[in-house]
């Protein structure tokens, strides 16, 4: 999508179905197939070619979202993937130019609208109910949780909005975690250290009590984006559903669960209700013994964890003819969900410290939206020299899992990788423009963060954070002006040309 094109309006998007309908109205944004597909590896294998993008194994590409209408072994359930696998499509869904999405999210945090609760009997997510105490209940045959590859530890729910509350304060939080089906009524849950729901779980476990948790699958994309905010932008006790409310200008609707004392997203396609059990752990690959979990955002398959918390499922509710939403771990969809909130967090922190200097931020695809940020910095006077590196330090503080920052000047397009690398080749000298910060915690899924990789890493999960300063020294700016071409009206010569 060209930055000069007008944005289609989607004011009616409020759930997954309305989002799909909107994308179907746009050329090239949604495709579907009636051919039967196996959820075990085949579904993801197909979409890798169609439009996964991101850090997926090549060949892959940025392309349309895809609906699979016929799932082997699961009549009556469809599966959709890739709704947010391109930044341009997220822009359509959120009524925003793609390069301004970080600013939209930043403003939405400040204008949050708290969720509201609707009557249980009116919630679309509860049109059909299955209770786990029914002897015929079996999660493995009820929902087509896909595997990304043939080596996965098991079937995974990858787009479940996990909602739980602090057992003491009753403050609630929503996040996305990988959930592997372990038995007819059990899921394992991997919680990245520092996530709010893990803090809730620990409190409940210390008290010897289970933690009620709902998992809403297939929701408004605004909710999926908002759920990926992290501290310090959204501290403990901040309900990210209120950011989704701001994005839509209307409160997200929740409803009371049917089997546990917790709430779920009322317009979800599917809700899994359960309890995180205290002091119960399970080996993630106990059913397959592959030693592997599933592909994660850096493009590598994560190792199966030896001891993960367990969710005991109490019930499943869903809409009639439900749509299960899934994502490929290393796809562009992860970049959108993780990266755009990262951009918002960085923009907010730096703007408060040095207003007007950082013009924009891009959480780059190659880092899965987490590991690499490109900062566009404007030096307006000699005293701004050095402040660009201060901005990079603030970026690391705004998002603790960030590994690398590339700094560029205002004339560089941070959404064009060629332009970023051009700046690195012509405005960067490694011996004076590289700043390293060793021995800092980063994201645990980066496989290079291991003592065997670098003697400077004392234990797994530590990293050397690095700033690549590709900005021109202020006193030399006159010598680094780009060649200027005449501003011409291309439409005069090529009326249908888009640029």
Write the layout of secondary structure elements.
Blueprint: H1 16-24, E1 30-33, H2 42-50, E2 65-68, E3 78-81, H3 87-93, H4 101-110, E4 116-118, E5 128-131, H5 139-142, E6 156-157, E7 160-165, E8 172-176, E9 178-183, E10 186-190, H6 196-206, E11 211-217, H7 221-226, H8 241-248, E12 253-256, E13 263-265, E14 270-282, E15 292-295, E16 301-303, E17 308-318, E18 323-326, H9 332-353, E19 358-363, E20 372-377, H10 387-398, E21 404-408, H11 417-426, H12 430-433, E22 434-441, E23 462-469, H13 490-493
Parallel strand pairs: 1-2, 3-18, 4-12, 20-21, 21-23
Antiparallel strand pairs: 2-3, 5-17, 6-9, 7-8, 7-11, 9-10, 10-17, 11-14, 12-13, 14-17, 15-16, 19-20, 22-23
Core attributes:
single chain, 499 residues, alpha+beta, nine-stranded antiparallel sheet, five-stranded mixed sheet, 13 helices, disordered N terminus
Major sheet: 9 strands, antiparallel
Number of helical stretches of at least 4 residues: 13
Fraction of helical residues? 10-25%
Derived from helix and strand composition plus strand pairing, the structural class reads: alpha+beta
Which percent range describes the beta-strand content? 25-35%
Mean pLDDT: 94
Shape: globular
What does this protein look like?
The chain is of the alpha+beta class and 499 residues long. It is 23% helix and 25% strand. It has helices at 16-24, 42-50, 87-93, 101-110, 139-142, 196-206, 221-226, 241-248, 332-353, 387-398, 417-426, 430-433, 490-493; strands at residues 30-33, 65-68, 78-81, 116-118, 128-131, 156-157, 160-165, 172-176, 178-183, 186-190, 211-217, 253-256, 263-265, 270-282, 292-295, 301-303, 308-318, 323-326, 358-363, 372-377, 404-408, 434-441, 462-469. Strands 5, 6, 7, 8, 9, 10, 11, 14 and 17 form a nine-stranded antiparallel β-sheet that branches. It has a five-stranded mixed β-sheet with strand order 19-20-21-23-22, sandwiched between helices. Strands 1-2-3-18 form a four-stranded mixed β-sheet, sandwiched between helices. Helix 10 (387-398) links the parallel strand 20 (372-377) and strand 21 (404-408). Helix 4 (101-110) crosses helix 8, helix 4 (101-110) packs across helix 9 (332-353) and helix 9 packs across helix 10 (387-398). The longest helix is centred in the C-terminal third of the chain and has 22 residues, at 332-353. Mean pLDDT is 94; it is low at 1-5.
